[in-house]
Design brief:
elongated; five-stranded mixed β-sheet; seven-stranded parallel β-sheet; alpha/beta; binds NADP nicotinamide-adenine-dinucleotide phosphate; single chain
Length: 269
């Protein structure tokens, strides 16, 4: 069995630590060789996380980690401000990349795509690794073929700083490939506060709520005369729903060249 060497940026965070534990516990075909976290740089992941038997040194930057530990796949799970720098370093070091971090812009992703193609490496950017979100995306694409008007609402807790969520961005981008929505009153003709109609992403109006009491949810609402269809996804409090999708992405990303968005790039549904 070939073992995939993985460097995990954000391994001490909420999502990254759950993935690190799952790799250590349940993935004999994946070896975690290095981790990135500023606070714990110089330490070892087994000490920081506890309860897992791995020898994984932690570095402050992706460049530092990759300088001493070659990897096949680099996983980015930090924050948008550091993600592009990390991904650039990983591609220049010859690794394939899985991006779980949300909040990267379309311009960031275009730059990453160009670099990945030059380096003949795959990048899989997945705004949400949960299987139920993959289904939300698919069902929404089916609905958009038949229904010309829709809007997206993204709900998250009050501490989430980026907006819209990665899930909402990815959904809007996918729906734009199906068709452009046809609002009865174009948004630029709004009387009153234009911002009340939300942000326009790929032609879709996206509204982000940030309030205590929410975890993370995404809803797309399709409207037709006298009928309405809502397709909604809700996540619970644990990072467990993201693990299986992230493992699948790590195992399959080397089959790609350039940037691809969404888990279904490597999932047959
Ligand atoms: N795709 C998905 O399915 C999915 C699921 C959950 C979350 N996410 C996204 O994944 C990202 C991480 O979420 P989270 O909730 O795990 O965040 P978190 O708990 O704050 O963890 C962030 C991790 O990244 C590290 N980090 C942050 N900034 C860094 C920098 N500049 N350089 C190096 N390391 C840095 C942190 O360590 P230090 O602070 O010690 O540096 C920590 O290990 C977010 O963008 C979130 O929206 C995506």
């Amino acid at each position: 069995m070939t073992t995939l060497r993985v460097c995990l940026a954000g391994a001490t965070g909420w999502a990254g630590s759950e993935l690190a534990r799952a790799i250590a516990r349940d993935a004999p075909d994946i070896a975690l060789v290095a981790a990135v976290s500023r606070t714990h740089a110089g330490g070892n992941l087994s000490t920081v996380l506890g309860g897992i038997d791995v020898n994984v040194p932690i570095f402050a930057t992706a460049a530092d980690a990759l300088a001493s530990h070659a990897c096949d796949v680099f996983v980015e799970y930090t924050q948008p401000e550091s993600a592009v720098r990390h991904v650039r370093a990983a591609l220049e070091g010859g690794a394939h990349v899985v991006i779980g971090t949300s909040g990267l812009t379309d311009a960031d992703l275009r730059e990453i795509d160009a670099l990945a193609r030059r380096r003949k490496r795959g990048v899989l950017a997945v705004g949400n690794f949960a299987l139920t979100v993959v289904l939300l995306q698919r069902f929404a694409e089916m609905a958009a073929k038949l229904i010309p008007q829709w809007e997206i609402i993204d709900y998250a807790d009050d501490a989430k700083t980026d907006a819209p969520s990665g899930t909402a961005r990815e959904l809007a981008s996918r729906l734009a490939k199906v068709r452009q929505p046809e609002p009865t009153v174009p948004v630029e003709l709004t009387a009153g506060e234009r911002d009340a109609r939300g942000a326009t992403l790929g032609g879709t109006q996206v509204h982000s709520l940030r309030l205590p009491g929410y975890v993370i949810s995404a809803e797309v609402i399709f409207g037709m005369t006298d009928q309405r269809l809502s397709i909604r996804h809700d996540s619970g409090n644990s990072a467990r729903p993201y693990v299986d999708g992230a493992l699948l992405a790590i195992r399959r990303v080397s089959s790609l060249v350039g940037l691809h968005r969404g888990l279904d790039a490597v999932l047959e549904i």
